[in-house]
Specification:
The radius of gyration is 18 Å and the shape is elongated. It has two helices and no strands. The protein has about 110 residues and is mainly alpha-helical. Helix 1 runs antiparallel to helix 2 (about 60-80).
Length: about 110
């Protein structure tokens, strides 16, 4: 699913791959803003859950972890640090983030 931008004798502004990347960047910038709103909802729901039960909701915690990994993929693509298109053009991220000291640990309330 990775598409590399290739360099040729064509001027950069005439490179169709560059323009397609720009279209995908606009699409993923929109997804980013949707994900920020979703993150806010997850945070509020998780907070309300903790207030009501005294414990975090493990499903929300796992979803939040997946959402953070999605943000990581999005930002890497938008800043040209990766040529791999994020979800939904690739699998939902499941692997821990690089250098994540708490990967796999369950947070305490």
């Amino acid at each position: 699913m990775s598409e590399k931008i290739t360099h040729s004798d064509t001027p950069p502004y005439k490179n169709t791959q560059t323009w397609m990347r720009g279209v995908f960047m606009l699409l993923f910038a929109f997804f980013y803003h949707l994900a920020v709103m979703l993150l806010g909802a997850v945070a509020i729901i998780q907070f309300a859950w903790v207030l009501a039960t005294g414990r975090h909701n493990p499903q929300l915690t796992e979803f939040g972890a997946g959402l953070s990994r999605f943000f990581y993929q999005l930002v890497r693509f938008l800043t040209f640090n990766s040529d791999t298109k994020p979800f939904p053009f690739s699998d939902w991220p499941r692997d821990p983030l690089p250098n994540d000291p708490i990967a796999g640990q369950t947070p305490t309330p």
